[in-house]
Amino acid sequence: MQFKNFFYVLLVASVMLSCSGKKENTSNRFEGRLVYKITSNLREFDPADSMSYQIIYAKDSLVKTDNFTRLGKQSYLKHILKNRAYTLMNFQGNKLALQSIPDSTKVEADKYTFFDRDESKEIAGLKANLVEVKIKGQKEPYEMWYTSEISHDYSEAIPGMKGLPVVFTLVIGEEELTYTLIEAERKTMDRDHFGLPSDYKVITTQEFEAYITAPQEEM
């Protein structure tokens, strides 16, 4: 049961990272690949380990986000315009596609307070702007960077930011995870890359909650 609880918390954090917030205009759509390097204040990540990275693939209104955890790879598929999303996982040998509605994820409106700073620099080939972010419950603000060249729709880790976050910090308990964009590759993407695999079973959030709390023999 402890493992299941850990898995559920990890999954919720992954979904929140990928799907919180509101959609914006389509003037800064992106097609290609975005790669973030992850660092922590509590542990060292091996640069050669896939857990050190998050990869986002995008094609206009289609998004696929790959996260790598101790439990394996998790992929998040989202159709921005249709407001439809699935989290793909292999849980105890079962291929599951957890269905969700991105905009239904509730985020505290006052969790983040932004203070623009008159400073910019280039990050991963993009013009980035500095913003100081005060997170509710944290004593000190964090310096983060965003670019207005790419829509916030593709990675809404910090709801309310004016563009795609390129350097941002997530606080999970005592741990601070900092994501830094290291690559923004514009390239043509095949639409099949964003499709829902036919061998995955689609389940709702409620069904998944019942699934992970079921006795082991019922799995």
UniProtKB/TrEMBL annotation:
This is GLPGLI family protein.
